[in-house]
Structures are given as structure tokens and as C-alpha cells.
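seq:
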Amino acid sequence: MNDASIIKLFFERNEKAVEELKHSYEKLCFYIAGNILSQKEDQEECVNSAYMEVWTSIPPNKPDNLKTYLCRLVKNCALNRWKYNTAAKRNQDFSVSLDELSECIPDGKCIEETVSEEQLGLAISEFLKAQPEKYRKVFVRRYWYSDTLEDIAAFYDMNSRTVATYLFRVRKKLKAFLQKEGYIDE
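struct:
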């Protein structure tokens, strides 16, 4: 079943919509949650919470891209759970990927003063569209899906040091781009 049909079921308040959503995207949702959270119970809770959020938010919302909408809900839930669990430091890999990005993404205080998170997201998307495909894909796998360097290297049949170099270069370019666009101070 395609996304438009699933959204139509949500608008009809048909419970089959959730079943179809699970059928289409359950593996992806668990993949995203699993890269952030190490506990299976936490992953299940986040994925189920995301399904519930989709049920309660459609309607009135009508997302253009159901997959992206759902993935964002799963990721946000997983990030919230991860923040809750950080005292125990259960997933060091995810913590490392966040630290890497902190060099080039402005902190929350700066964002509130100068630009909305949505505008920043659009600027980052614009930047990524201008990057070579391989660099863009490696960046997204690392910072959206939270893959480890080794997983990305295996996925693209690359050396993990090459992946690290790609990420370093893209972060450096992203920082320069955001400085040029006025999102962060020099």
C-alpha cells in the first residue's frame, strides 16, 4: 500500500492505517531507534510512541512524505529517551556522532536568538544537496541514521578511514557554509 493510501486511512480513522504503517516502515523505525538506543525495550517504546503520535496527529496534519514524518517522530522519541538515559552512557557511538556535529551546528541558545530550527534544517538540506552524492549519503547515514563508521564503510564498500575523512570534509564545509549564511559566528 502506498503512503497516500495509508494517509487516507488515517483520515478515515481506520485502524488498518497503523497496521499498514507498521508493515511498510517497521524495520526502518527499529533501525533508527536501534542506532540511538541500546535497550530493545526503549526501542519498542519509541517506535510504538511514534505510531501513536502519527495516529493522533493525522488528521489534522497531512504530511507530504509519510516516511520522513514517521522517521522524524521515531528519531525525536529516541533522542528524548537517550537524553533520559545519558547518565548511564548506554550508547557511546551515538554520543560520538553528536559530538562530531557540535563543531559545525550552532548550539540551541544561538538558534533561539537568530533562526528557527526549521530554517536551519532547510539551510543544511540546501547545503547537502550541493554536495557530491557519496559525501551526502555518508553524512546522512552518520548523522540521521546514526550509523557507526564501520557500518557506513561496510554499507558503501569503503575503508572506515575514508568514511571518517569524508565526514571531516563535509563537516568543515558545512561549518563554513553556516558561517557564510550567518547561522554561526566566525
